[in-house]
Every structure is written in structure tokens, then in C-alpha cells.
Design a protein that fits this description.
This protein is mainly alpha-helical. It has 17 helices and five strands. The strands form two sheets. Strands 4-1-5 form a three-stranded antiparallel beta sheet. Helix 2 packs across helix 8, helix 6 (107-139) packs antiparallel against helix 7 and helix 10 (208-230) crosses helix 17 (395-418). The protein starts with a helix and ends in an 18-residue tail after the last helix. Residues 50-55 and 432-436 have low confidence and may be disordered.
């Protein structure tokens, strides 16, 4: 079946068509809002202030919000405060008994966690909005046309309202659209920078052959990242037969999927935050030669020392976040309550040790490959790729785009299969597809 026929099948399903069009409409609203400037800011004076390097912390933040940060838009903080609040709540769930209790309360607990995450988003956004306004007044004072106090107060209110509105847009996509709304908003912000960076890459190359080679390498990297994202180790789980009334339950073999990259993109985000600390400390002591000497390596983003340190920090955080995200003891207890067991392994402590051992073995190669993907932009830059376009060769940008695209494609696939269509990719291996 041709690709055109697959698209026709999508729009033959009224519900799926409406969901896709609704998602596109919401994303267009988000992109339009990112171009609306904050009150009290002269947008024309910001033209010379949009030079945040892609390798800096603010430049990376600007990439996630689709350039709204450098344009001082009402969505300048985007959805990132919500992501920060979600990470904090998730980390607290590993150490604070109250949040552990909420995680075990099912739907009611999830509602409470969602409410706390929203409150945390508002608080984090208010603090970040103050920092954003102070930074803008320091870097582009000519763009501020109102008093400093009025600008800080109005920016705090407008940016907080903008983030809450973006959060609401993401929830609407998740509820009435297709895919995860929060993830799609982040992805569309990253993709928005791709056309300009690709055009810049084409204009800087002396011939078209180099561009073709770069695109071919990029396709291979994307394929490798897809394999990393989709890679799982399936552990067989046997469920004992149970008789409830006149019905017999269990007696089947299912699989416990353990992802090779269970930590996702979080290790790279944590590692990048750590790597920015030395340069930040150095900025506070510009006249101290010792401090500048110790932190000089942290500003050379394409240097060998920076790449080696970044690589090993990513490996460490991959194991760290995997240990937080996956709890073998909880898996073993849930399996035991449901009457399941791993063939050849005793329930209880031995099951916990077995799962933990398997998880460690698959996380090691996953962490090494993820760390290699993290330093690929630096490697691409050393081979002559422009810094803006090199960001799409690896790191958080590529992992987010691939992960969100696969998740959205899986949901489209499920809708098509429910209507007895062959699916969007007939010969592919998309998770969620069930063989007859």
C-alpha cells in the first residue's frame, strides 16, 4: 500500500481526522503566541539580542521553547517549568513517604499529584519569570520602555499566565487530540529551528555533495536512535490459574518489558545542567586567573576534555535515573500479588535480584550508546557542521523528536488497526501493533 493511500486511510476515519486537525490547530496557537512580545518591550530592539549560542544554557532553553525566549514572547518560558515541577515530584516520590503513598493510591493519587504539579509549576514559573526579566534588563536595557519595577511585575504575571496557558493547551491535546500534548509542544518548538539551521548549513557549504553526505549520516543516526528508543528486553512471566466463580483466570505467559533506555532523555538534561556549573561559577570571578584556568575547559563545547567528562556524567545519570524510575522490588511485589512468577526464579527476593541483574546488564550498553548520542553534536561540529544544525545530530533535540514521533505514530497506528486498516506503516515494526 502506498504512502498516499495510508494518508487517505487516516482521513477516512472521522474521529482520527478530527483529532489530528485539532492537534494541528492547538500547535498553531502555540506558535503564534511565541511571537507575541511581552508588554513593555520594544521588539525591534531585540534583533541584536537574539544571539544566544546554541551551546549555552539560555540557548538550549531557547531551543526548547521555539525561539520565544530570545524574542521575549509571552510563552518565553514555555512548558519547561511544568517539566521541572514534574521531575521534582517524581524525584520526591523516591524519597518522601507522602509522595510514595500518593503513587500507590491509583487514580485518586494521580489526581493529587497532578494538582501538586500544577501548583509547583506556578511557583517555579513566577521565580523564573523574575530571573528572566532581570536578565533581559541586563542584556538588552535599550529594549525596555517602562520602569524596571513595572517590567518585572508585569513580566511575572504575563509569563506565569503564558506557561499555565501552554500547560492547558498540552492537556487539551492529550485529551482531545493525538499524542502527548506536553511532548508535542516541546517537539514543535525544537523543529521550528530546523528550517533556518538547515538553510544556513546549505549556504555555508561549498558544494552539494557535502550536504548530501551530512543528510545521509543524519538519517543513519536517526535510525540508530530509533533502535535505542524501541529496544526492550522481554522477561517471560507465568501466571498461575485462578478459579473465580465459574471463570478461570491466568494460566497464560506474558512478558515484562524492560527498556534498554529506560531513563529516556533525562540523563542528558541532568548532565548538561552539571556541565554548565563550572562556566557559571567562572562568570562570578572574571578576574581570578585560577578560577578561569580551572573552568576554561567547560566553555569549549567541542573540546575533547568537555566531551569525555560529559560522556561519563551521562553514563552516571543514566544509571541514577533508571534506579529512580524503575523499582524491581515493586515489580516483584506486584507480580506476586497477581499470582505471577518468572519461570525458574523464586518469588520474592530472588525475583528482585533477577530483575535488578537484567536491568543492570541492559542499562550498561544503553547508557554507553546514549552518552555517545549526547556528544554527537560536538563530533559533528568538529567535522564542519554548523553548531545550529549539529544539535539535530544527537543530544536532547534528536531524542525528544524521535521519542515523540514514535509515540504519536503508535497512537495513529492503534486508531487505524481498530478500524481494520493495515496501519500507517504496513511493513514496519511499530509498538502497539498486534499480529493476528
Amino acid at each position: 500500500m502506498s504512502l498516499i493511500e495510508n494518508f487517505r486511510n487516516i482521513f477516512k476515519i472521522e474521529d482520527l481526522k478530527n483529532r489530528i486537525l485539532y492537534t494541528i490547530g492547538i500547535l498553531m496557537v502555540y506558535r503564534v503566541g511565541s511571537y507575541i512580545t511581552l508588554p513593555g518591550v520594544n521588539a525591534s530592539e531585540l534583533i541584536n539580542n537574539t544571539g544566544n549560542a546554541a551551546s549555552s544554557l539560555l540557548g538550549l532553553f531557547d531551543l526548547f521553547v521555539g525561539g520565544a525566549f530570545s524574542r521575549a514572547g509571552v510563552f518565553a518560558l514555555g512548558i519547561m517549568p511544568y517539566i521541572t515541577a514534574s521531575i521534582i515530584i517524581q524525584l520526591m516520590g523516591a524519597v518522601v513517604p507522602y509522595f510514595q503513598k500518593l503513587q500507590r493510591e491509583g487514580e485518586e493519587g494521580r489526581r493529587k499529584i497532578t494538582r501538586l504539579t500544577r501548583y509547583g509549576t506556578v511557583a517555579i514559573t513566577a521565580v523564573q519569570a523574575i530571573g528572566f526579566s532581570i536578565n533581559l534588563m541586563a542584556t538588552a536595557p535599550q529594549a525596555i520602555v517602562v520602569s524596571n519595577v513595572a517590567f518585572v511585575l508585569t513580566s511575572m504575571v504575563v509569563l506565569t499566565a503564558g506557561t499555565v496557558f501552554v500547560m492547558w493547551l498540552g492537556e487539551r491535546i492529550t485529551e482531545r487530540g493525538i499524542g502527548n500534548g506536553i511532548s508535542l509542544i516541546i517537539m514543535i518548538g525544537i523543529i521550528a529551528a530546523l528550517p533556518a539551521n538547515f538553510y544556513n548549513e546549505i549556504t555555508t557549504k561549498p558544494n552539494a555533495i557535502l550536504v548530501v553526505i551530512e543528510i545521509a549520516v543524519l538519517v543513519l543516526v536517526i535510525a540508530a536512535v530509533v533502535l535505542l528508543t524501541q529496544g526492550t528486553r522481554k522477561i517471560p512471566v507465568q501466571y498461575a490459574k485462578r478459579v473465580v466463580g465459574r471463570k478461570v483466570y491466568g494460566g497464560t505467559t506474558q512478558y515484562l518489558p524492560l527498556r534498554v533506555n529506560a531513563a529516556g532523555v533525562m540523563p542528558i538534561i541532568f548532565a548538561q545542567s552539571i556541565m554548565f556549573i563550572p562556566s557559571t561559577v567562572g562568570s562570578f570571578f572574571p578576574d581570578n586567573e585560577t578560577v578561569q584556568f580551572l573552568t576554561a575547559w567547560s566553555t569549549d563545547f567541542t573540546g575533547l576534555t568537555y566531551s569525555i567528562v560529559f560522556f561519563f556524567i551521562c553514563v552516571f545519570f543514566t544509571f541514577f535515573y533508571t534506579a529512580i524510575a524503575i523499582n524491581p522490588k515493586e515489580m516483584a511485589d506486584t507480580m506476586k500479588r497477581q499470582g505471577g512468577f518468572i519461570p525458574g526464579v523464586r518469588p520474592g527476593k530472588q525475583t528482585v535480584e533477577f530483575i535488578d541483574n537484567i536491568l543492570t546488564k541492559i542499562t550498561l550498553p544503553g547508557s554507553l550508546f546514549l552518552s555517545f548520542v549526547a556528544i554527537l553534536p560536538a563530533i559533528a561540529t568538529s567535522f564542519g557542521v554548523t553548531p545550529g544544525f549539529a544539535l539535530f545530530y544527537g543530544g536532547t533535540s534528536l531524542l525528544i523528536i524521535v521519542g515523540v514521533a514514535l509515540d504519536t505514530l503508535q497512537q495513529i497506528e492503534s486508531h487505524l488497526m481498530m478500524r481494520h486498516y493495515d496501519g500507517f506503516m504496513k511493513t514496519g515494526r511499530i509498538k502497539g501493533r498486534r499480529r493476528a
